[in-house]
Write a structure and sequence with these properties.
Length: 158
């Protein structure tokens, strides 16, 4: 039994290692997709997903990585969950992507479908700057370099 468990762990770890993903390069597109939350002319306005209430109530933090395709007509298609620590984090992440202001992009930015992968980090603030991108990168369970942080606060009722 011990050897079977060890074998399964090794297979799991090697499968994780082989699933490396590199964001396709599209320089013109990269310049227009802002990692900030500004809404400049011609820049996609991205905002964090809603923190799942059930997770906030229990103090749960987690992540989800979503892969999606942006078509030349600025539609989001083929959304797929790549990694997720819990289903509710994946659901909230998938809900927010189509709501981003893709229409801010000019027509010549995307001339063929572009595949993107975004990692969403769901973090509850504790007053120690624990929800910065640098801090969530230290403890994440999900893959992806394009990060959007959904920072929530725990409110205690008396």
């Amino acid at each position: 039994m011990r050897y079977l468990s060890l074998g399964l762990i090794i297979v799991s770890l090697s499968a994780c290692e082989s699933s490396q993903y590199r964001q396709p390069e599209n320089t013109k597109f990269e310049q227009k997709v802002s990692k900030s939350h500004r809404d400049n002319n011609g820049v996609v306005r991205r905002f964090a997903p809603r923190y799942p209430i059930s997770a906030a109530k229990t103090g749960e933090m987690g992540c989800a990585t979503i892969e999606y395709v942006i078509t030349p007509s600025l539609e989001i298609t083929e959304m797929e969950v790549i990694d997720a620590t819990a289903g509710h984090f994946a659901i909230e992440s998938m809900k927010v992507i189509p709501k981003w202001k893709w229409s801010n992009l000019s027509g010549d930015v995307i001339t063929s479908p572009v595949t993107r992968r975004t990692r969403f980090e769901f973090c509850l603030k504790d007053g120690s700057n624990n929800c910065t991108v640098e801090e969530v990168n230290k403890r994440t369970s999900c893959s992806g370099e394009d990060v959007v942080v959904a920072a929530g606060s725990v409110i205690r009722r008396r």
